[in-house]
Each structure stands twice: as structure tokens, then as C-alpha cells.
């Protein structure tokens, strides 16, 4: 996962990264397996020059390969927080 995030910071995209459906553009997820378990890390790339990690979790197969609704809700709320944080950051730089 760290390698995939390093690629994202440099403007690239690792092979184990895909767009997370239903979240809008620039929301990507890294999927990685370790010791028989699957882990996901969701990050936001649509804000210029920054990568926001929105959520990282172990995938428990309750709903097949779909992201559970409670995780999607959390990700959506964190997108709003990230966008607000980014706007505040931009204001501070412009001053």
C-alpha cells in the first residue's frame, strides 16, 4: 500500500489501484492481500498537489467484493472534510 501511495504522490498509479465507484472522480482505492486477508486504502486525488487518505480497513466478506455501506458513508463524510481542509489550506497560502 505504501508503494501505491508513493506513486500517487508522484502523479502515477500503481497496478493494484482502481477507481472507487459511486464516489465521484478522483477517489481511488488500493487493494492488497496479506496472510489470506484483504486490505483496502481509499484516498482522494482530485485536489491539486495533495493526497488525502480517507479510510483504510480490512475487508471482511459480508457483502462480497462490494464496499460495505457504513464504510462508503464514512468515506463520503471524509471527502467533505478533506475538501474543507484543502480550501482552508489554500486560503492560508494566499495570505
Which features would summarize this protein structure in a list?
95 residues; alpha+beta; globular; 36% helix
Describe this structure in words.
The protein is of the alpha+beta class. Helix content is about 35%, strand content about 30%. The chain has 2 helices and 4 strands, in the order αββββα. The protein has helices at about 1-10, 70-95; strands at about 15-20, 25-35, 35-45, 50-60. A hairpin with a 7-residue loop joins strand 3 (about 35-45) and strand 4.
Question: What does this entry show, briefly?
Answer:
This protein has 95 residues and is an alpha+beta fold.
Mean pLDDT: 90
Main β sheet profile: 4 strands, antiparallel
Low-confidence stretches: none
Helix content: 25-40%
Q: Give the class from helix and strand content and strand pairing.
A: alpha+beta
Task: Map the helices and strands.
Blueprint: H1 2-9, E1 17-19, E2 27-34, E3 37-44, E4 52-59, H2 69-94
Antiparallel strand pairs: 1-2, 2-3, 3-4
